[in-house]
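[Q] Does anyone have a clean structure-token version of this?
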Amino acid sequence: MSLPLSTTEASSVPESMSTDSSAAVLPAGATSPPARLVLSPRPGVEASDGVWWPRTIDLATEVPLLDVAVQERVHARIARIGYERSHWSAAPGRIRTSLGITHLGWFEHSRYPDQILLSLSNYQRLVLTVLLPGSDEVTANAALESASD
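[A] Here you go.
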């Protein structure tokens, strides 16, 4: 898989104005490190359209950063994420990001538990291979680098 290593990353998430108590919201002025994401220049050609290395297993923290990073790269926000829940802490059914609401759906078991499925606002679909947050930095960076070859 030939994926370019992109470093255009979002570094902050503005305050959300949601009154929906079932949507997770970051506190006002919260800043977080940018999402570590590599996307393929030809989505749909390989089994995976990119690699994502989140810092935590908390989707309420990670999804807003991923949404901004995806928007910067493909000019569409994440409308829905499908994931296998065994790798993640409990998450709400939707998360408000700086770009809108992202719906989350989990699977009890998946054929590919190390992947997440993204449905974008432009009706495009992306499959991302997820490196576990606990992966050591040398191994994870090697995976990101090899994905860019």
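[Q] Thanks! Anything notable?
[A] Helices lie at 59-74, 137-147.
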